[in-house]
Automatic annotation (TrEMBL):
Signal peptide: 1-22
Lineage per the UniProt record: Bacteria, Pseudomonadati, Pseudomonadota, Alphaproteobacteria, Acetobacterales
Cellular location(s): Cell envelope
Species this chain originates from: Acidisoma silvae
Gene3D superfamilies named among the record's database cross-references: 3.40.50.2300
Principal location: other
Name this protein carries in UniProt: Substrate-binding domain-containing protein
Top-level taxon: Bacteria
């Protein structure tokens, strides 16, 4: 999240996943009903959903989960359904950071708290928000670019795969990448294009770039691991995987494996279960009258071949075991203010 947003932000069926239009919510703080709408079911969000479910179960909360499928209008409709149902709180990972202000305002006027997670909302929505739970995406973008500059010796040509234009994740990671590129004038950006967080789109775009630029491409900066994996697949078909460095962000399972085998140079661990699970816990805590942070900012650990095994074992060696300990970890992190600790 950018410093601009930081300055203006505020200082299912128990537990099966339901839809927004089911039976009326229960006005019971001990059994809160939380509406949760996300932009799409990417690998990061799909993994994060498991953490949300674990937290909801630990708190006897009813989780109503919806994915907008990258459709702004679908998310607006889902949001309105949550308001109509009179859920106790709404958590949203926005399709587009410039939308949803009218719906967020309407929720607040209806007495429903709104927690934004993973991606920021528009600044004009700030007065109506209860909390933001998410990453420092500017730093993540900068980390990627710095590792790429080191690998290239601060000279050569790169291409950049962006997230969906207008999402804060794309805006802020692109900002961090460009900040570092501006300090490295001997590096040229041959192309920059949205891959929309999607492997298949990144694969097709990278194929096109390889045909167009060939050996001129020295590195690929992808703003998430799914796109990095798509790019790596295109490189593999040309016998170039591991020869052209690729960076990413999120630390999804396939991303960590790629870092481990050397086909992905670096990633930044955005722990989906921890982050989205914390957003769920913040929503529940607010409904129960407990204090919640206005901003819970995650600093993502950098993942390299030197340290990736530690995080891989923690998250994926016994993922079900990790989920069992997750609610306690989230509560401890909220108490300490070290939100990304794991």
């Amino acid at each position: 999240m950018s410093s601009k947003f930081l300055k203006i932000l505020l200082a299912g069926v128990a537990l099966s996943v339901g839809t927004a239009g089911a039976a009326p919510a229960f006005a019971d703080a001990k059994n809160p009903v939380i509406g949760f709408t996300v932009y799409d079911m990417s690998s990061f969000i799909s993994l994060g959903k498991r953490g949300v479910e674990a937290v909801a179960k630990a708190n006897n909360a009813t989780l109503l989960w919806n994915s907008a499928g990258m459709d702004v209008n679908a998310q607006i409709s889902q949001f309105q359904q949550f308001i109509n149902r009179k859920v106790d709180a709404i958590v949203v990972a926005p399709v587009n950071s410039a939308t949803l202000t009218p719906q967020i305002k309407a929720a607040k006027e209806a007495g429903i708290a709104v927690i934004v997670t993973n991606l920021t909302a528009s600044p004009d929505a700030t007065p109506y928000l209860t909390s933001y739970v998410g990453p420092d995406d500017v730093m993540a973008g900068a980390n990627e670019a710095k590792h790429m500059m080191t690998a290239l010796g601060s000279k050569g040509n790169v291409v950049v795969l962006q997230g969906p234009l207008g999402q804060s994740g794309e805006i802020d990671r692109t900002k961090g990448i460009k900040q570092v590129l501006a300090q490295n004038p001997n590096v040229t950006v041959l192309a920059i294009q949205p891959g929309n967080w999607a492997r298949n789109q990144a694969y097709s775009i990278t194929q096109d770039w390889l045909s167009r630029y060939g050996s001129k491409i020295d590195g690929i900066i992808a703003e998430n691991d799914d796109m990095a994996i798509g790019a790596i697949q295109a490189l593999k078909e040309k016998g170039l995987a591991g020869k052209i460095p690729v960076t990413g962000t999120d630390g999804i399972k396939d991303g960590m494996r790629a870092v481990r085998d050397g086909t992905e140079l670096e990633s930044n661990l955005q722990d989906g279960p921890l982050e989205l699970g914390m957003a769920e816990q913040v929503a529940i805590n607010h409904v129960q009258g407990k204090p919640v942070p206005a901003t819970a900012m995650f600093i993502m650990p950098e993942l390299t071949k030197a340290n990736v095994d530690h995080y891989y074992t923690q998250m994926y060696g016994d993922f079900n075991g990790f989920l069992k300990t997750l609610p306690a970890l989230i509560n401890a992190n909220l108490a300490s203010g070290n939100y990304g600790n794991q």
